[in-house]
Design a protein that fits this description.
- The complex is a heterotrimer of chains A (643), B (477) and C (332).
- In chain A, a hairpin with a 4-residue loop joins strand 3 and strand 4.
- Chain A folds into four domains: 135 residues; 134 residues, no CATH class; 104 residues, no CATH class; 112 residues, no CATH class.
- In chain A, the strands form two sheets. In chain A, strands 1, 2, 3, 4, 5 and 6 form a six-stranded antiparallel β-sheet that branches.
- Chain A has 643 residues and is of the alpha/beta class.
- In chain A, helix 13 crosses helix 16, helix 17 packs antiparallel against helix 18 and helix 24 packs parallel to helix 26.
- Chain A starts with a strand and ends with a helix.
- Chain A is flat.
- Chain B has 477 residues and is of the alpha/beta class.
- Chain B is elongated, with a radius of gyration of 33 Å.
- With 332 residues, chain C is α/β, with parallel strands linked by helices.
- Chain C has a single domain, classed as Rossmann fold, CATH 3.40.50.
- Chain C contains ten helices and 13 strands.
- In chain C, the strands form four sheets. Chain C has a seven-stranded mixed β-sheet, with helices on both faces. Chain C has a two-stranded antiparallel ribbon with strand order 4-5.
- In chain C, strand 12 and strand 13 form a beta hairpin.
- In chain C, helix 1 crosses helix 2 and helix 3 packs across helix 5.
- The chains are: A alpha/beta (643), B alpha/beta (477), C alpha/beta (332).
- Chains A and C meet through helix 1 of A and helix 2, strand 3 and helix 3 of C.
Chain lengths: 643, 477, 332
């Protein structure tokens, strides 16, 4: 079970609306509402038909200045309501995940897993989801493979879309499994540019490469009748070959094949002829390899294994502690590393390693051969000397995102320390951390509070964030007011690490992190003055941040919080000084006045208590104070939700 | 300078008595001295004249003043400087004092009209003219009426005489005396359509209970007589006291009663059962409260929605489960109704139901108290389709016309229990629920039964004339 | 199966449509297409048929007909650029040879090819960078016949027709009029301006109350219609009634961009007015043919009698392929 951060959107209409389809809600952050709208409309499967729904479709796009690739999956359903013209409409629920996250996880992700994770979500709020994804289930996928799936996979390698017809009776679920199975019969990297849909309308112009439909589009697509044996007349030979190769795998072999193809995660593009051609040849190589491995007779000898194959074999030999075999492979690998390795190759290898983490067993921990392997591997994956930014990537590549500490064997660490740069602060921090607490303290000692926070914001790395917060916590001792002041000031200057936390953590975790940050900075429940000060410097603080403030609010601070939030919101919306602002102010006064009365009672109570200074506060007084705070907090929460 | 015989002066003054706004001053100058008269209207618009001053020439000059100065002082004190208040000077003799007086008056009010007359007694003339003047305000008879929304009594005016009515005019009004002790005939004046100005008169009429056609005669402004009512004597109680004795609702005599329960069957089982529940509840309530079950009849009608996708118009009629039956039979009939699937979402066959009920009611004795309780979700179909896209009733029944007809002929009271509140203020539900309008999840059945006039509650005595809703052609509050 | 190789990213599939449709979301474009074949079936000039040129278009045509005739409702809002390749085939005429007029021989049946592009209404409002939008403008540039749908009901409620039309016209004009090809500065298209939803009570009532309707003496059903010479004025009036002030400029906008003699105005209704079969004629108290159904959607109540649905298409067909229909009397 893996977890992935997913951004999401809903494309549809509000009931009775006269508007066209638009993104009516989406997550905040990496992808804007407009981008969601553009990509969702670009990958439409065509006009809705009753028999098409529910409809599941996938899409891909590149977002951001670097063209970061994303993989998306949508579920389209028909709501009970109609639009303003009394017409039915469809609601499309969409999640998308970074391609890099998909292939970096412990296991790749099937369409079904993504779909099931989507179905779990309620699409509210604006925080990205943390999807719980089922592991890539080769057995299930292999179980869905039939002749049509094999042929579809083969035909996709011609570069033309495939349209499966005469399958209208299949349930949407079954159709989704089919699409997943077809994708599983190709290297996983092709999902990078594969748009599929459980139903398309062929009269509509769409970009869906593999889908079911009533009739195929007029031009350009392969018409593939469901479970029909006869091949299309103009069946291309290379597709025939791939189909034939696939037919040789049955049962466990098919599972192995699907698993193997699932590890081939370097991005591939259907529109790239060379990628398609390489894929077409893939199985021929593999088949012979298998035959050799199992001692059968083979006439074809593969001249030279690919680096991925070598890495695969290295991984196996490490896993089985076959030092001898590893030594031989090391030699081959070193030869490759010495040769010309392009940047594209390195990227491909890195993706491979990410998907197939190498973890030497305990008894190889001191093995020189393993250390050699890692040295070669690092040279293969990165250009020495490495750039500062590579460090984090290396940790991700080799350690897996969430198992940094346990993922790295001593052998790898030893190899790494030779290559690691010392220039970038975040890199420095991470290296020091890996090298042990002594090293870490040495590095931290020379960093100012401001530098610390800055590094956390810049790196947006979970581990770095952890290190920084721990360090800030260590420095901001209540006994050292100057230290506290410095930490608080640094946190405020760096917007309480909001940029880092919001990009790394999902909602629940964000709140906890903000709590840490606020606690480190203040070491007490936040007073009204604290809250005003904190929020004064922030425009549009995330809601998770506000929640964190609420968890830490001191008694009687609710009015301050409410007023500050309202003030901030009005400033942001530019309604300050308008009648609305007056009305809000009047409303707040009204909302809080009842509680003021309570406060008044409490104040009176306290005055009386003050007379006999030494008398302990009565339980009644505490209860009263507590009740009033709860009341005001509830009002604040209501206002906030409403805003 | 005008020379008028009495007729001319009469005409001129008659016009002014009708047209003056605040006050009219008339200064009579004769050989002996002056008299200053003023005509004013009281709060109910009746004009009265008073003599403000009267002095002989010798009195005027007694303190050594010239006539001119003395006259000017009197004018300043007694005659309005406002140009809109007319001033008339009548002179029946010439001479030094008379000229000085006229000059003084002219100086004070240059627009004053001077009329030369002889042999006219201005005081008497003004008395005659004010008594014969047309009404300056509207006179209404105050009657009690049952408010459409809830049946509570409210006071409204029935027009007797409009502004401009002449003394001697007659008016006819039919009212009901509900109390054996007779009733109070109170006449109020209205200075504008929405401005009651005051009570003209209140007299106690010892009439027997029942309907009475009254003839009112305008004797003069401020005095209305009812010549056919013997033993009329002024009611001297303060008006507030009279009002305070009024009951909230009218006590009704025990008459046969007929409740028609119309229930929309279209909807889910739950919706239908909620509607049936209230119909049954009201029937049970009536059965419990009614002193004489022989007097109570109940009908049950189930109606659904029209079918519009058939080739020929749907002319199905609502199902009459029971007509003018006992409460027990009605209960059984209610059980026999079954929910139906709505075939059209925005309206139901209410107009067909009304047509059916109307036809049946034609055979009913006139004295029966009749009430219609409609329980449903959808409003009626209009007789012609409009902008709201609701198709016309296939039979072109006009629900409003049918409802009005039954209200007029049978004194029908119509109440409604809706599934959800009416969407707009113009919703037909508001009119259908003119007696009572409840939502299915918040029904006060007791109140409903009272408003429908099927359950009586002890009430005070109505000492004012009563008009029923159907015979009331609109009044003022 | 087709024989040209084309990636799915490339929306270009064969030729561009002859006739493109414009109109806002909900203005009834797809319903118009759905009603077209019914209109042809019902026309008095019996024998006109609408057929799909390929499997996709045939399937879609069947679906559209089915929606109106069987499901008795309206097509779902179009989500993607949708292409219909249809053909109208008329009845074969009989001709007599001028030199031997005693026997008749069958001539060829007239055929009009109709390539329609249907699209989601808001596409016009999107930026040029949108791929669908680009394809749309391309097709408008290449097409020669336009059906512009003006929905008075939508205009009274939303009022965005001007915005959409203005944006699209300027883009098309920007592409076509910059060069020297069209020296007169007008777009070369024929445009059928269709006022839709004549059956809507808001539209019909205005037409009747403002005196735009006449009764065709030959029409047994006595349906009030707006005579062709008054449709332009009626259109202008409806524009005045719109929600948005700019709507008043639509007519001027159209006439500024197109040749006056290539514009024709039609008052259309895809489903027509309801006629009570028992009464057998138009009833001003009961003409709603589109009513709410129990599910909250719309349903068609009576027989479908498309009004002026085939006329704009045949007019465009005649204008674009003068030879195809010849001098045949096609407009009733």
């Amino acid at each position: 079970m893996g977890r992935l951060t997913a951004h999401w959107a809903i494309l549809g209409k509000t009931p009775e609306s006269l508007d066209d389809y638009s993104v009516i809600r989406c997550s905040a952050g990496a992808i804007s509402n407009a981008e969601f709208g553009m990509w969702l409309k670009a990958f439409t499967s065509g006009t809705m038909e009753p028999k098409a729904l529910p409809r599941v479709a996938t899409s891909y796009f590149a977002a951001g200045p670097d063209g970061e690739p994303w993989l998306g999956l949508s579920l389209q359903r028909e709501p009970d309501s109609q639009d303003g013209f009394h017409r039915p409409y469809a609601m499309t629920y969409y999640v998308c995940v970074r391609w890099a996250d998909v292939v970096a996880g412990p296991s790749t992700v099937s369409y079904r897993a993504l779909y099931e994770a989507l179905a779990e979500e309620d699409f509210s709020g604006d925080a990205p989801f943390r999807l719980s994804l089922a592991t890539y289930d080769e057995r299930h996928l292999a179980g869905q493979v039939n002749g049509t799936a094999r042929r579809a996979a083969a035909l996709l390698l011609t570069g033309r879309p495939v349209c499966v017809v005469r399958a209208g009776r299949l349930s949407p679920d079954r159709r989704l499994d089919f699409l997943d199975a077809v994708a599983a019969l190709l290297p996983y990297g092709f999902r990078h540019t594969l748009a599929v849909s459980t139903w398309t309308n062929s009269a509509s112009r769409h970009r869906i490469r593999l889908s079911f439909a009533e009739v195929p589009p007029t031009h350009g697509a392969w018409e593939l009748p469901w479970e029909a044996d006869d091949r299309p007349a103009s069946f291309p030979p290379q597709a025939l070959l791939y189909e034939k190769e696939l037919e040789r795998y049955q049962g466990d072999d098919l599972c192995d094949l699907v698993g193997w193809l699932g590890t081939m995660v370097e991005p591939r593009d259907f529109d790239d002829v060379s990628h398609r051609a390489a894929a077409s040849r893939l199985l021929r190589g593999r088949a012979s390899d298998r035959v050799t491995a199992y001692g059968g007779q083979s006439v074809v000898r593969q001249p030279r294994p690919s680096v991925e194959q070598l890495l695969h074999q290295c991984r196996e030999s490490i896993a089985h502690a076959e030092e001898q075999r590893l030594g031989a492979l090391n030699a081959q690998l070193a030869e490759r590393a010495r040769g010309r390795v392009t940047e594209q190759d390195r990227k491909t290898y890195r993706v491979f390693i990410r998907a197939n983490p190498i973890r030497p067993p305990e008894r190889l921990s001191g093995s020189a051969v393993v250390r050699d392997f890692f040295e070669i591997l690092l040279r293969l994956l990165y250009v020495p000397p490495m750039h500062a930014a590579d460090v984090e990537e290396m940790l991700v590549d080799l350690g897996g995102q969430r198992r940094l500490e346990h993922g790295l064997s001593p052998a790898l660490l030893a190899a790494m320390s030779k290559l690691l740069p010392v220039s970038a602060p975040s890199g420095r921090l991470l290296i020091a951390y890996l090298q042990g607490s002594e090293h870490l303290h040495k590095v931290l000692a020379v960093m100012s509070e401001d530098e610390l926070c800055h590094v956390a914001v810049r790196s947006r790395n979970r581990k770095v964030l952890e290190i920084v917060i721990t360090e800030a916590d260590r420095r901001a001792l209540p006994t050292d007011p100057r230290g506290m002041e410095a930490v608080r000031y640094a946190l405020a200057r760096n917007r309480y690490l909001i940029e880092a936390i919001s990009s790394i953590c999902a909602a629940e975790e964000s709140v906890l992190r903000y709590q840490d940050v606020l606690w480190v900075g203040h070491r007490r429940y936040l007073t009204s003055a604290d809250i005003k000060e904190i929020l004064a410097d922030l425009d549009s603080p995330p809601r998770t941040f506000l929640l964190a403030i609420m968890t830490l609010g001191a008694p009687e601070t609710a009015p301050a919080l409410l007023h500050t939030m309202a003030g901030g919101t009005m400033r942001e919306l530019g309604v300050t000084g308008t009648p609305v602002a007056d009305a809000v102010k009047a409303g707040l006064d009204r909302m809080l006045s009842r509680d003021d009365a309570g406060d008044g009672r409490m104040a009176r109570y306290r005055r009386r208590a003050g007379l006999g200074r030494l008398a302990p506060a009565s339980t009644l007084g505490k209860a009263l104070a507590g009740a009033s705070v709860v009341l005001v907090a509830a009002a604040a929460l209501a206002l906030w939700l409403w805003l | 300078m005008h020379h008028f015989a009495e007729g001319g002066l009469r005409g001129e003054l008659a016009d002014l008595v009708v047209s003056f706004r605040e006050r009219l001053a008339v200064v009579e100058i004769d050989a002996a001295g002056i008299r200053v008269f003023e005509v004013r209207a009281d709060e109910v618009g009746t004009a009265h004249h008073t003599r403000r001053a009267s002095a002989k020439w010798s009195t005027l000059t007694a303190s050594g003043d010239e006539v001119f100065d003395a006259m000017l002082r009197i004018a300043r004190d007694l005659i309005s400087a406002d140009e809109t208040d007319p001033v008339v000077i009548t002179r029946s003799a010439g001479g030094h004092e008379q000229d000085a007086a006229v000059r003084a008056l002219r100086q004070w009010r240059p627009s004053a009209r001077l009329v030369e007359v002889s042999g006219v007694k201005v005081g008497e003339l003004l008395g005659e003219l004010t008594a014969g003047a047309p009404l300056r305000q509207t006179y209404d008879l105050i009657v009690a009426r049952e408010r459409a929304e809830d049946g509570r009594l409210e006071l409204v005016g029935r027009r007797l005489f409009g502004a401009g009515a002449q003394p001697g005019d007659e008016a006819h009004v039919t009212v009901t005396c509900t109390d054996a002790g007779g009733m109070v005939l109170a006449v109020s004046a209205w200075s504008g359509p929405l401005q009651p100005s005051g009570l003209v008169s209140a007299d106690h009429a010892p009439l027997p209970p029942g309907r009475h056609a009254l003839r009112a005669v305008l004797e003069r402004p401020g005095l209305v007589r009812f010549p056919e009512v013997p033993g009329l004597r002024p009611d001297t109680r303060p008006w507030e006291e009279v009002v305070a004795t009024l009951p909230e609702r009218l006590q009704r005599a025990s008459r046969p009663a007929h409740l028609v329960c119309a229930i929309e069957t279209a909807g889910t089982r739950e919706e239908f059962e909620a509607r049936s529940h209230w119909a049954g509840y009201v029937i049970d309530l009536l059965a419990e409260r009614c002193p004489d079950l022989q007097q109570l009849k109940v009908s049950v009608v189930g109606y659904g929605t029209h079918v519009y996708d058939t080739r020929h118009a749907d002319r199905s009629r609502p199902a009459l489960a029971a007509w003018s039956a006992s409460t027990a039979q009605a209960r059984a009939a209610l059980e026999s109704l079954r929910p139906t699937t709505p075939t059209y979402p925005n309206a139901a066959q209410i107009e067909d139901m009304l047509a059916e009920v109307r036809t049946r009611l034609l055979r009913q004795p006139a004295s029966t108290r009749t009430a219609l309780l409609t329980i449903g979700a959808r409003p009626p179909h209009p007789p012609r389709s409009g902008l709201d896209r609701v198709p016309a009733c296939p039979a072109r029944h006009d629900w409003l016309a049918l409802l009005r007809e039954m209200e007029q002929h049978h004194g029908l009271r119509s109440a409604v229990i809706c599934d959800s509140p009416p969407a707009t203020s113009t919703s037909p539900w508001r009119r259908l629920g003119s007696t009572a309008l409840f939502q299915v999840d918040a029904v006060n059945a007791e109140e409903l039964a009272v408003r429908l006039g099927l359950v009586t509650e002890p009430a005070g005595v109505l000492s004012l004339p009563f008009v029923s809703q159907s015979e009331d052609s609109g009044g003022r509050h | 199966m087709a024989d040209t190789d084309s990636a799915p990213g490339d929306p270009e599939r064969g030729r561009e449509p002859d006739i493109a449709m414009w109109g806002a979301s909900g203005s009834g474009k797809t319903a118009f297409l759905a009603a077209l074949s019914i209109a042809l079936n019902k026309s008095r000039d019996a024998g006109w048929r609408l057929i799909g040129e390929n499997a996709v278009s045939r399937t879609e045509l069947a679906k559209l007909r089915n929606t109106l005739l069987q499901a008795r409702t309206f097509p779902a809002p179009t989500e993607a650029l949708t292409h219909y390749s249809w053909m109208i085939i008329g009845p074969a005429e009989t001709r007599r040879r001028w030199w031997w007029p005693w026997t008749a021989r069958a001539a060829k049946a007239p055929k009009i090819k109709l390539d329609f592009l249907d699209l989601r209404g808001d596409l016009y409002a999107e930026s040029e960078s949108n791929i669908d939008k680009k394809a749309l403008v391309d097709s408008l540039v290449k097409s020669r016949g336009l059906i512009y749908m003006f929905d008075p009901d939508r205009e009274a409620r939303v009022g965005d027709a001007f915005k959409h039309l203005d944006a699209a016209l300027h883009e098309v004009a920007g592409r076509m009029l910059v060069g020297d090809e069209y020296e007169d500065g007008k777009l070369p298209h024929h445009i059928a301006v269709c006022i839709t939803k004549y059956d809507d009570p808001r539209v019909l009532r205005i037409a009747m109350e403002e005196g735009f309707t006449e009764r065709d003496p030959t029409d047994e059903l006595r349906i009030p219609h707006v005579p062709p010479d008054r449709v332009r004025d009626f259109f202008r009036l409806l524009c005045h009634e719109a929600h948005d002030h700019n709507t008043e400029m639509i007519l001027d906008l159209i006439e500024a961009f197109f040749h006056k003699d290539r514009i024709r105005y039609f008052v259309t209704s895809s489903v027509g007015l309801f006629i009570d079969e028992d009464l057998g004629r138009f009833d001003p108290d009961d003409y709603l043919n589109v009513i709410d159904d129990a599910g909250g959607g719309l349903t068609i109540r009576g027989a479908i009698r498309p009004m002026n649905v085939m006329e704009p298409v045949l007019w465009l067909g005649q204008m674009l392929r003068p030879g195809a229909i010849g001098s045949r009397r096609w407009d009733g």
